[in-house]
Amino acid sequence: MSCLDGGPGIVAKLRNPNKTAMDYMVAFSGGDYAESYVVSPAAHSSVPVQFGGMSNGTYTLIVWNAAGDVIAETPVDVNC
Question: Percentage of residues in the chain with pLDDT exceeding 70?
Answer without folding.
Answer: 100
